[in-house]
Amino acid sequence: TNRQVAVLLAILMSTLACGPSEGVARPVERLSGQAGAPGIGDSDFPLDGNGGYDVSHYALKLGYTPSSRRLDGVATIQATAKQGLSQFNLDLKGFKVGEVSVDGAAATFSRTGHELTVTPAAPLRQGSAFNVKVAYAGVPQPVVDSSNLGRYGFIPTPDGAFVACEPNGARTWFPGNDHPADKATFDFEITVPKGATALANGELTGKPQTSGDLTTFKWREAHPMATYLATATVGRFQLREGKTPGGIRALAAVDPKFTRSLDKLYKLSAEITDYWGTVFGRYPFSSTGGVIDDFTAGYALENQTKPLYGGFDPGEDIIAHELAHQWFGNSLSIERWRDLWLNEGFATYAEWLWAEHKGTGTSDASFRAFYERPAKDPIWTYPPGRAKPSDLFNESVYNRGAMTLHALRGAIGDETFFKLLKTWTSEHQYGNVTTEQFVTLAERLSGKQLDTLFDTWLFQPGRPAI
Ligand code: ARG
Ligand code: ZN
């Protein structure tokens, strides 16, 4: 055909132009596609996420049996090829993979560590939309991290599962592009024993259906979400549903051990969500709320629309923190883990703002209390602007991150500072962000040169002068 002749001509001409070393190889690759990279390009987590494609939607059909801990899943993933792809990777930890198909045609696959490599029957063209279907089953194996992450992922509990996945535990329950740089919408269809409740992100799309001794819950998160914020927490739960005074749908759920916390969790979550709407800009999701499970995780996680509290009754400060993450972390997600202070520093500063709002403290007093810490304290030895992969959630990322914002507020004044927060959330709503973008915006709105302030607070060890 004319096309083949054109391709042959192109090969011939590029061979003549460039010499044999690259002239022959390149056009051939373009015809067959290349392998997508096994990582998305975050050098601190080189195998997290994947290259070569972008996911737009996950449809997860899951069956979970607490007594046997067995999870049966079918994941259908809609994506777009960002390059010609002869093969591509998904992240999946554990499980036996049954079948994989691409656009309905059987695909071959192989597995190495948490990399599931898929080879479609025919290469995918750059720019084409495709879907991948993966059937898998087994007992989920949560991640147990030796540094400061503890246990995370899909964690079986006696009555269900506690599902909190930051930073990279989504792979313990579904195959995907497990990195916050690739956000997508989600549909969940979760079948559990009758009497258990499955709580995923977003909204129920219908009434739970019981047939025999199984109940199916269908949830939809219609806004883009990072994989680590996805949840399918299962167990016996008491629920309270309604709307916040400001009109946002709200759901609180507690394990029966926390019955006495249900109303408090519901009311505080509603009140705080409404208040953050006035400070950070309109609430970005379709509902708010919180879940207390009886699994002692030692942490809470800001799961999109449904923060999860691991075995404790959260105080106002923690609820204020997790709900602030709905803007900082969830609507605006980091592009690289090293910028984690954009999540944790902001959510911690929100705790200080909440105390100020309630009249129980001032952000100045919070700042001073930390500022007095001795020189050997982690906040002075660990500059928070570059979170370390081996110590990602160091308290400096939280507390000195918050101090950075307080120092910024002092430098640019209250009016510009609060305008900056709202401009930041609106300009990057549902997107991905970097520290450089925040610095640029702060300089643009204030008209000030802020390099020294950000450099000393975020990137240099030692206690900055004030
Ligand atoms: N982002 C959570 C918070 O609000 C912390 C998550 C910690 N993750 C972990 N695997 N320990 O503070
Ligand atoms: Zn946090």
In short:
It is an enzyme of class 3 (hydrolase). The chain has helices spanning 2-18, 20-23, 25-32, 262-280, 316-324, 341-358, 363-371, 378-381, 395-412, 414-427, 435-446, 451-459, and strands at residues 34-35, 53-65, 70-81, 85-91, 96-102, 105-106, 108-112, 115-119, 129-138, 143-145, 150-157, 160-164, 184-193, 197-200, 203-204, 209-211, 214-225, 232-235, 238-243, 249-254, 287-293, 300-301, 308-310, 333-334, 432-433. It is α+β, with helices and mostly antiparallel strands.
Major beta sheet, specifics? 9 strands, mixed
Bound molecules: arginine, zinc ion
Low-confidence stretches: 1-29
* Structural class based on helices, strands and sheet pairing: alpha+beta
What's the overall average pLDDT, rounded? 94
End-to-end Cα distance, whole Å, is 73 Å
Q: DSSP strand (E) fraction? A: 25-35%
- Compute the number of helices: 12
Radius of gyration: 24 Å
Number of strands: 25
Give helix % range. Answer: 25-40%
Basic shape = globular
Descriptive notes:
- It contains twelve helices and 25 strands.
- It has helices at residues 2-18, 20-23, 25-32, 262-280, 316-324, 341-358, 363-371, 378-381, 395-412, 414-427, 435-446, 451-459, and strands spanning 34-35, 53-65, 70-81, 85-91, 96-102, 105-106, 108-112, 115-119, 129-138, 143-145, 150-157, 160-164, 184-193, 197-200, 203-204, 209-211, 214-225, 232-235, 238-243, 249-254, 287-293, 300-301, 308-310, 333-334, 432-433.
- Strands 2, 3, 5, 6, 9, 13, 15, 16 and 17 form a nine-stranded mixed β-sheet that branches. Strands 19-20-21-23-22 form a five-stranded mixed β-sheet, with helices on one face. A four-stranded mixed β-sheet has the order 1-4-8-7.
- The protein is globular and about 65 Å long.
- It starts with a helix and ends in a 7-residue tail after the last helix.
- Residues 1-29 have low confidence and may be disordered.
- Keywords: Hydrolase, Metal-binding, Metalloprotease, Protease, Signal, Zinc.
- Its cofactor is Zn(2+).
